[in-house]
Amino acid sequence: MFLTAFVFIMSYFILFFMASIRLKNNSIVDFGWGLGFVLTNFYLIIIKGNISIGVGIVTLCITLWGGRLFLHIFKRNWGKPEDFRYATWRKEWGKWVIPRSFFQVFMLQGIIMFIIMLPVISIYQYETEPIGILMGTGICIWIIGFYFEVVGDYQLSQFKKNSLNKGKIMSTGLWRYTRHPNYFGEATMWWGLFIVGSSYGNPMWTIISPISITLLLLFVSGVPMLEKEMKHKDGYEEYAHKTALFVPFPPKKND
Asked: What does the radius of gyration of the chain's CA atoms come to, in whole angstroms?
């Protein structure tokens, strides 16, 4: 099952890579992220041939998260030029842009997706139903994460729509308790799915999934990039002093 999922995911990103060459735009890899989880999960259902209650619940979670993320990114990025990150790499890589894009953008995304999906892929090996308490705990944690990601993204988009907020820091709603509620939510959802997988008897090594997404968001692709952007905005130092970086916590009182 793991090899089957790996081949499917890598083939999926090869298709996106081929489209990126034609469009000369590596940003389309972002469109493939959330959708890839959804399609991989449905592919595994087809391979398995039946759906248990637990698999149905996991499928609902993956579809809600991945589908919403795809629509959110599509609405935000469709019709726009290549994202500045990929455009910068395109200039830096020069004549090597095609092979480096293949390995460092598309294949790397595929490998990361495979690692993050390990707890989900693993449950398709079992015929038994999961343990109820662990399943319930995992789903509750997933719901908390989904709430933080969806509401955090919505609050930020509404804030940005107001031209009076240009150059300002979002510090209300969930953003009052954490500087990155959407990233916290995404990591939390995968911790929840890891626990759901554990209810089936998944091996402990599948914990690499939530650990990986948490570390990526905290130190690589999520928090550092947004913090760098926020530092140039008015009120950042005060906001950073008062507000937790990642895990939500009541804001500090003024000294």
From this structure: 19
Q: Measured between alpha carbons, how far is 60 from 45 in angstroms, rounded to an integer?
A: 12
H/E stretch holding 52 reads none
Q: pLDDT tens digits for 129-148?
A: 777 889 999 999 999 999 99
Is 0.85 surpassed by the pTM of this model? yes
3 state DSSP class of 31 = helix
- Give me 134's structure tokens: 């662990």
pLDDT digits (tens, 9 = 90+) for 15-35: 999 999 998 888 889 889 999
Non-local (6+) Cβ contacts of 40 within 8 A are 5, 8, 9, 12, 113, 117, 121
What is the 8-class DSSP label of residue 26? T
Write out the DSSP string of 134-176. Answer: HHHHHHHHHHHHHHHHHHHHHHHHHHHHSGGGTTPPP-SGGGG
Q: What sign for the dihedral angle of Cα 77, 83, 86, 90?
A: positive
Q: Where are the domains of the chain?
A: 1-129, 131-255
The β-bridge partners of 244 are 178
The secondary structure of residue 81, as a DSSP letter, is P
